[in-house]
Amino acid sequence: MVTLAEVARHAGVSASTVSYVLSGKRTISSGTRQRVEQSIRELGYHPNAGARALASSRSNIIALMMPLRTDMYVPVMMEIAVAVATTAREHQHDVLLLTGQEGPEAVRRVVGSGLADAMILMDVELEDDRLPLVREARRPAALIGLPADPRGLACVDLDFAATGRLCVEHLAGHGHRDIAVVGEAPAVYERHTGFAERTLDGIREKSAELGVRVLHRPCEGSYESVAGTLARIFDERPGTTGLVVQNESAIEPLLSLLRQQGRAVPEDISVVAICPDQVAGQTSVALTSVAIPAQEMGRRAVEMVMTRAGLGGAPAMTGTEQVELLPPRLTVRASTGPAPAAAGPLPG
Amino acid sequence: MVTLAEVARHAGVSASTVSYVLSGKRTISSGTRQRVEQSIRELGYHPNAGARALASSRSNIIALMMPLRTDMYVPVMMEIAVAVATTAREHQHDVLLLTGQEGPEAVRRVVGSGLADAMILMDVELEDDRLPLVREARRPAALIGLPADPRGLACVDLDFAATGRLCVEHLAGHGHRDIAVVGEAPAVYERHTGFAERTLDGIREKSAELGVRVLHRPCEGSYESVAGTLARIFDERPGTTGLVVQNESAIEPLLSLLRQQGRAVPEDISVVAICPDQVAGQTSVALTSVAIPAQEMGRRAVEMVMTRAGLGGAPAMTGTEQVELLPPRLTVRASTGPAPAAAGPLPG
DNA sequence: GTGAAAGCGCTAACAG
DNA sequence: CTGTTAGCGCTTTCAC
């Protein structure tokens, strides 16, 4: 294994000079720099991570904690994870993957051992077990999701309330007066993740404002569940002409069922989905949708912890409250259109 | 920060004793052990990861390298990643998440810096860029997937050839004589990932053996693409009564299209899918399927690197070739049945 | 069964 | 602009 000392000897300089060439923490004459860089290349030197962490008490590692449950929409989580890893590399950091498996203890372990300099928590719940530990850890942390009490924490999330309002605005703008929400699975509401409720709040608020009637039904992702939910919706509100779908796995079954029932999209019924753009484009009818900005959430979370660690150029700010709600963007595709003139029972 | 030295003082022993209590590498009288453990708990001591890595030249970290492309089926990748992380913890290791972003260089960086003790590569291609570096790294590594030349490497994968044979056997057993394969996207074949070809090989072999006719068509996941593929299949082979689907994202559109065309599953046409069990159970018609054993692949990969690192109880064996193909399991659900008596054109 | 002490490879004062 | 040096906290001989 090539060490810094060997590089120093090879380049005819002292160890500290090599170290400073690497870190850029003091000015080096371009002559020495060249020779050192040359030696580094020739010897194939890589600084030892452990030694560096020990001496500098910074590991250059960010811990990313995934939720225990897997009922979250997986592609979004994956996209966040990849964005976190990519952005972290841009800041000379690596990412340690923690699953919820170990529970809140993982926070203590990773922080206590100095394994990670900072952490990012995904799928944060309103009352999250991990938050007390995160607060007392006194390490930069960023949450993806919005807890009930974000005091002293950094959080990024999609502005779900605005998302809800946007969906209603779009449908109302097309003359829909009676809409239904195909919501998340009941378990999601019970777990109090917050985002589902916030979406509903936004939907209800804007509906009230615009005089639109709303019916909300939670819905699992299975075909049967969607069938049942749809049946109950049309049973209770036969005049429904607009649907907002928040459960991504319900989308395909939903479209399939509507087609089977002879309800044309968007002629008879308009559908707005809250889902990744990639999904919205692949369905049988391209979906008007509000995207979940997974990449941006991951990127911002990393930038937040870097800033809070004092590595962003600005001074450190661990402990400051910082809530960032990303504005929703609605993309109009083929699944929404004007409300049918007479919103009566099934056509034909 | 609590250090080992402080624990030692608190317990009235020497630093090395504390270290040995922690590692179990020498026998400690139960008296001292108790006192040390007590002190550790009281002081909330966590060994410093950097110091430990430096002194022992083992980081207790496994690098997991994900593919750059995102056209792999995401839920499977995620499941593998979670299984890797979970199993790693059972072996006192953490997982570092690397994306393909950096390319093969990432291997060099992580290994050179001693950041990771071992690595696991996902989505390995037949001629994978990373393999030369992995070979010269002389660190334990495990591949998920099977390269053209596995010499000196450890690999786990589903036995896709056997999977193909199994699908054909099942359909042939139900009297199907004319089957079609809805394959992966053309890009997957072009990239030479191997698994798609191996599945086909198995399908063709068993078909030849059993006198079944096979038509293969690559297929993207989009609705249009599936529609086109299906049209071409039934155009060319109207008598097709069995379908093997390998592209998971094609499944929902496929079922939806068959229904629209008035082809009942399984009465008119049988469908076997190669996909996670969870997907197979959620579709409108529960799918007879061969599962991708994602969890087991992740788990085995970790166990392989642990063994090769000499941490599995047995002696180390880096450099030994070790190819492990997991046997496929076919689960019969509702999407397959006897071939219709007269396999003619569309019913009705 | 336990201690003492020599590093592991790097960083960051301190000294010029 | 560069060199010297004292640790960082732990593991692991060696010694008893």
UniProtKB/TrEMBL annotation, chains A, B:
The keyword Glycoprotein does not apply. The keyword DNA-binding applies. This is LacI family DNA-binding transcriptional regulator. Residues 2-56 form the HTH lacI-type domain. One of its GO terms (molecular function) is DNA binding. It comes from the Bacteria. Keywords: DNA-binding, Transcription, Transcription regulation. InterPro entries: HTH_LacI, LacI/GalR-like_sensor, Lambda_DNA-bd_dom_sf, Peripla_BP_I.
